[in-house]
Amino acid sequence: MTRLNELRDNPGANKIRIRVGRGIGSGKGKTGGRGGKGQTARSGVAINGFEGGQMPLHMRMPKRGFNALNPGDWNEVRIDRIQNYIDSGKLDAKGVIDAAALIAARVIRRPKDGVRLIGAEGFTSKKVTFKVDYATKGALAAIETAGGKVDIIPAKAPWKKAPRAE
């Protein structure tokens, strides 16, 4: 059993800070490990990405990157959570479960761009019909094995123009 006066850190836990610029005999005297003159020898240097006046690489790259041009804002709902709402009586399993029914049961707060069903386990209800924008493979399989049905709402493409009437 260790006593309070015998407590100490593990070996190597505390490293003594090197005091730079304290004479030639310290090994870190004169320039203090910063080399010669110039910008990097001064304090407050901020040269990350600076290329000597040339346009930096991160500014030459296109701004679009790998992001979607029109990302959707979806309500992602797990099917086990829907099962809990059905079991508690807040959701009616006999009717069609869509965004309006989920808002009425307070599963989601607002419709956003649509509802996506995710998850694979925890769904046991029989004959439940969903009308959603998207469902994962696992969610589809779990609902169909329970005897339910999923109607996928066809995606609307806002960037496509409507055909002209001639």
Tell me what the structure shows.
With 166 residues, this protein is α/β, with parallel strands linked by helices. It contains 4 helices and 6 strands, in the order H-E-H-E-H-E-E-E-H-E. The protein has a 3-stranded parallel β-sheet with strand order 1-3-5. A 3-stranded parallel β-sheet has the order 2-4-6. 13% of the residues are buried. The mean pLDDT is 89.
Which term fits the overall shape? elongated
What percentage of the residues does DSSP assign to strands (E)? Answer: 5-15%
Number of helices: 4
What kind of sheet is the major sheet?
A: 3 strands, parallel
List the uncertain runs: none
Tell me the total number of β-strands.
Answer: 6
Question: Based on the structure, what is the oligomeric state of the protein chains?
Answer: single chain
Strand order of the largest sheet: 1-3-5
The assigned structural class equals: alpha/beta
Order of helices and strands: HEHEHEEEHE
Q: What is Rg? A: 31 Å
* Overall pLDDT confidence: 89
- Our measurement of the CA-to-CA distance between the termini, rounded to an integer number of angstroms, reads 94 Å
Proportion of residues in helical segments: 10-25%
